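Review form for a predicted model. The reviewer records the input and the model, then writes brief findings.
Reviewer: anonymous (R2)
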Amino acid sequence: MGANTSLDDVLEEDMHHWYTKFMKESPSGLITLFELKTMLQMTGMTEEASSYVDQVFFTFDMDGDGYMDFVEYIAAISLLLKGEINQKLKWYFKLFDQDGNGKIDKQEMETIFKAIQDITRSYDVPPEDIVNLVYEKIDVHGEGELTLEEFISGARDHPDIMDMLAKMMDLTNVLEIILRGQQTNAVN
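Model under review:
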C-alpha cells in the first residue's frame, strides 16, 4: 500500500493483504485495549479521554471477550468509513450509553464530548453547550435522557445536530494513525 492511499481505498484492498497487515500489527490475532492505545499513540491522556478510548474499544469488541479480533477490526473500520447513517447513529448511541441502561443522559453525552475534545485538542465549543443544544432539540419529552429511538429520529430530523455529531464523532484521524502504523510495519 502506498503512502498516498486514501482511507476509502482501505476496504477495497485484497482481504488477504489486509489480514496480513493486521497480523503484523498484532501477531496473536487479537488486539487488547492496551495494544489499541499503544497503536494509536495515546499516552498521557486525561482520564476522560482514556475512558472514551475504552468505550470505543468495548463497543467494537462485539463478543465482549476483551479482545478485538480481525472480524471485529474490519467491521469497525467498515462502519466508520462506509456505514449507513442509522448504523452510525446506533453506534454513537452505544458509545454514549456508558452505563448500558438503554438511555443517554446529559452527563454521559458530556463526558464523551469532553473526551473527544481532549483527544482532538479542539475546544471550539464547550461540551455542555453542545449537550444542551442536543437535548433542547431532541429530548421532546423533557426527561433529561434519550432512548435509541429518540436519538436516531431526533438526529435525522435535525440536520444541524446530525452534522455536529458527524464532526464530533469523526474518527478519521484515528484510522489514519492505524493506517500509517500498518504502512510502517509493512515497509519494515
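Findings: The longest strand covers residues 103-105.
Further findings: Residues 1-5, 182-188 have pLDDT under 50 and may be disordered.
Recommendation: see findings above.
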